[in-house]
Amino acid sequence: MKCLPTYKGDHMATADSMIIPGLSAEDSAHVAGLPGRIIAAWADQDAKAFSEVFAEECTMVLPGVLCSGREEVHGFMAQAFAGLFKGTRVTGAPVRARALAPTPRSW
After folding, report:
1. Candidates 3.40.50.2300, 3.10.450.50, 1.20.140.10, 3.40.50.1860; correct CATH number of 7-82?
2. CA–CA separation, 74 and 44 (whole Å)
3. In whole angstroms, what is the distance from residue 72 CA to residue 75 CA?
4. What's the alpha-carbon Rg for the chain, to the nearest Å?
5. Stated pTM of the model
6. Lower Cβ count inside 10 Å, N or C end of the chain?
């Protein structure tokens, strides 16, 4: 198993500093900023904002949960924010990312 460092030189990789090979600096910043949008939506307990981070035809996996499509993600998170996840927080930061295609679709 290979461990992935979270530091670039002596700086931690952040949405502002992460450059994803194959993407422009602007697109890299957009992709690296996605975890921040998830964290903010979760903090606000906002299922709509949370689900809008995902592509229309997405897959979301959480422990014991598999949602297919943005609509399912929204429905699950709306229920979870009203119950199991009510008042909870989530955190995270990008560690490593790669472009699946040289030019991303429209954001």
Report:
1. 3.10.450.50
2. 14
3. 5
4. 15
5. 0.75
6. N
